[in-house]
Amino acid sequence: MEVLKTIVALCLTIILSSTCLAGDLSAPQDLAFTADYDGSVQRYIQMLPVGYDLSQPVDIMIALHGHGSDRWQFATGTFDEARATRDVAASHNMVYITPDYRATTSWMGPAAEADMIQLINTLKSQYNVGKVFLVGGSMGGSSAMTFTALHPDLIDGVSARNGLANHVEYTNFQDAIAASFGGTKTQVPEQYYNRSAEFFPNSFTMPFSVTAGGNDTLVPPDSVMRLSRNVAQTNPNAVAFYRPNGGHSTNYVDTAVALEYVVRNAKGINTDLNPITINTSFENPRLPDDAYTSNTIEGFTVVNAGGFAGIVNSTQAVYNAEFTEPMPDGDQIAFANNFAFYQYLGTTVQPGIYHLSFYAGSQLSNTAPGTFIAGFMIADNNVAETADLIWGDANAATTGPGLIPGKWSLIELDWTVDPDNPSIGKYLYINFWANSSNFVHFDDIQVIFTPVPEPATILFLVPGLWAIKRLRRRC
After folding, report:
1. Co-location of 311 and 253 in the same domain
2. How far apart (Å, rounded) are the C-alpha atoms in residues 147 and 204?
3. Where is pLDDT greater, at 261 or 473?
4. How do beta strands 95-99 and 41-47 pair?
5. C-beta atoms surrounding 465 within 10 Å
6. What is the pTM of this model?
């Protein structure tokens, strides 16, 4: 009976965490404090979870800006990393903080370090703080790792994007770093050593993720990849999202998955048992009225096979002329013809049952019902290109029923992974391919994983899960 309770609780956790709509953050509040370090006035942005009872335990996410920017970069920025960071914070009802940490060119020197300690203590005095997550990009990613190396007791999870972990060998931005550290490498060598996270892998006992690009010349990935490998030797909750052809930026999906990996592990949600799906009702970003995107689908990698794809909202005149039913979930959907789009789910294949469901619709004007292939796909790495992907097994893809023009159909697919399946340990994707010139529309994509339970419980558990899943959720 205890086994059954555990499985039910785990599966309900997966359902709720994977499919609830993201929360919202309040408008930015521009706040200040007087620094204990030198009496100067230091500023930070605070955004609160809308509708959340702040008398209850609440987690904090602190996002550190990049070189040349300030506290507003991650508060109001529209680039992928900023949007994904805010979305993850909102989806977990976190208090979201973006500090100046001293300067537009601060590299977590002694003054910035002191300000960060003071800010965290201030937040803990104001709120019933559960966990503190530290994230950042470029200089901010470097500074997040520096601060964590110096004060691991203050941080419960850290995610660094396109940062460096070794100031001793780094040669760019040396004037700014010297101003922050209080001198050059020759004048204060101990500062450069002590603020190089690579030399302190044992500080990273908390969930830890990094992103890096092989073609990044501004902040080369070598030191952060060495740190990640060293941390992973003793920390099972450490992961690197490395794109060999990537540059000095991280896309929305990689940012969100890297952050979710840290947050879920810190909160005790097993990412191996919990696929991470991003923007699967296509509601982010909200498009202007009567608009659509051209060959981009936020949250997915798209592959053009000679057609067209994008996202459209319910105010678009063409959509309203082509469908006699409302959109299944929200007011934006994806569409495609002769086009594929796929998403890495932030996890590897494990024994159990994977359930994929989504809505597919065919336009009234199609000369024939749109056709598609959709399902789970696997690869040997988490940065696979389309050519690397193969269907999980013969039962891991579906063409669905014949679509009715102007209407939506619910498509559901189960993939059972036995303990001896050779796909176990491979990286898991979902893939959608509209393989004809007739348009197919997609919405409300959901993935649920049920780990292999004892034989006596599986027949009881599985049908109930599918029934629970189809309830409309608003969390």
Report:
1. no
2. 11
3. 261
4. antiparallel
5. 19
6. 0.72
